[in-house]
From TrEMBL:
Signal peptide: none
Domain of life per record: Bacteria
Domain DUF7670 residues, every copy: 1-101
Protein name as catalogued: DUF7670 domain-containing protein
Species of the source: Symmachiella macrocystis
Lineage, highest ranks first: Bacteria, Pseudomonadati, Planctomycetota, Planctomycetia, Planctomycetales
Annotated TM spans: 27-47, 54-71, 77-96
């Protein structure tokens, strides 16, 4: 799911081409972009490190939501932004489950 979201963002960025100028973003919009970028980086990281990637993804999305609420007085609408939380949640569940299984195996070996 994280790869689908990243692929979607890449397709949109390529579609914008030269018209895409993130350096023109200022203030809260620039900070919101950085928070969302952190979430996307977290989605890529969670393929190797589930715990760190999940935390990055959820932290970035939470920051994005808080900043959007501060700027507009409401949370983002539509299904896309809420769906961005899901890869982080699933990664943390898998990380926690794997740690728990590893600890159980370690305690049985003793």
């Amino acid at each position: 799911m994280g790869l689908l979201i990243i692929a979607f963002v890449v397709v949109l960025a390529v579609g914008e081409g030269r018209d895409l100028d993130v350096t023109a973003l200022g203030g809260i919009e620039g900070t919101m972009f950085l928070a969302w970028l952190m979430a996307l980086i977290g989605m890529a990281v969670l393929w190797k490190w589930e715990g760190a990637g999940g935390i990055l993804t959820l932290s970035g999305m939470a920051a994005f939501y808080v900043l959007n609420f501060a700027a507009s007085g409401r949370f983002p609408g539509g299904p896309v932004f809420p769906a961005c939380f899901l890869p982080g949640v699933l990664a943390l569940i898998c990380w926690w489950r794997d740690r728990r299984l590893h600890n159980d195996e370690h305690s049985r070996a003793m």
